[in-house]
Design goal:
This protein is of the alpha+beta class and about 350 residues long. The chain has 2 domains: about 5-140 and about 275-355, no CATH class; about 150-240, no CATH class. The protein is built from 10 helices and 6 strands; from the N terminus they run αααααββββββααααα. The chain has a 6-stranded antiparallel sheet with strand order 1-2-3-4-5-6. The protein starts with a helix and ends with a helix.
Amino acid sequence: MTTFERHVIQRLLKGFVLFIGSLIVFFIVLHWVEYSDDFLDGGATAWEVFTVFYPSYIPEIIRLTSPLALFLACIYVTGALAQELQLVALQTSGVSLYRLMRPYVLVGSLITVAMFGFNGWVVPRTNEVVVRYENEYLPHGDETVDVSEIHRQNTPNTTLSVGYYDRTRKRAHDVSLQKFADTSRLVARLDAERMEWVDSLDTWRLQDVAQRTPARDTMTQTQHATLDTTLQVYPRDLARSQNDVAAMTIPAARNYLATTRRAGVANLERPLVAYYNKFAYPFANLILVLIGVPLAAVRRRGGQAVRFAVGLLIAFVYLSLQKLTEPFGYAGALPPSLTAWLPHLIFTVVALIILWRTRK
C-alpha cells in the first residue's frame, strides 16, 4: 500500500467518523425537540432519556446514516484532493481513476461488511430498549401493534398461534400450540379458547383445552377445563409491532419466517422485505462510494459547496427510492427479494455509468 493510499484511508475514516457523529447529534436533537414533552408528560426523566433511551437509539441512527456519512466523507476528501491538484498531478503522471479509487473501495467494502454484522446482530438488540420506551411514552408507539392473527415460535419445533390478543388483560383468544417433528409433520396439537397470563406464577393458564395427538389414521383427544403451561412466549412477545423482523437478529428473523410459513401464515410480504433489507441495505455504503469518488474527482465551479449539493441530491434520491419501492413489495406487486435489492441494482448501474463517463 502506497503512502497516498494510506493518507486517503486515514482522511476517509476521519471524515466518516466526523459526519456520522454530526448526524447522530442532529438526529438526537431533532428527536428530543419533537418528543421531549411526550417523554416528560409520560413520567420519564431527562436523565433517564439521555442515559438509557438515546444511547440505545444511537446504533439505529448509525445503521440509517452510515451510507450518507461515508458518501459525504468521500466527496469531502476527494474534493479536497481535487482542489489541491493532487488528483490532477497523479492522473497526469499516468495513474488512472480506477487506481486512485482503490483505497476508497477498500474502506467502502470494510464498512459494508461491518455494517452487515452491525445491522444484523447489534442493532436489533439495542432496539428492544428503543421500542419499549416508544411504546410506553410516545403517542405513535402503539399504532402498528398487531393484536390479531399472531404467530410466534415457542421452541424450534413448536409454534404458538393466537386469533386475538387483549394487551390490557394479557389474555389471548383462539389459541393453538402446534408441535412438529420436522418441517411438515404434526405430532401434537393443543387448542384452547382462552389463554391468560398469571403474574404470580409466571405461566399461562389455558381454558377449555383440547389436547390432540395424531395416531396413525386417527386423532386422540383429551379435554381439560384448565391447564397451566410454561412457554418461551411472554405477554410482551404477543404485543410486537408489524415490523417484527426489522427488530430481530438475522438468525431470529430466519427462524421466525420459517415458523410462520410452517404454521400456514399468509401475507408475509412485509416481514420478508424487512428480512432481505438486512442483507441489501449495507451495500448502499459501497455503492455510494462508487458514485461519490468520480463525482468529486472532477473540479467544478463553486468548489465543495456544489459537490456537496450534488452529492446530497443523489444520496437523497437513492435512499428515498428504497422507501418508495417498499410498498410495492408489501402489496405483492414485486417479489420481496427484488423489492429489497432493486434500488441497489439501479444505482449500481448509475455508478457504472458515472465511472464510464468520468475522465480516467
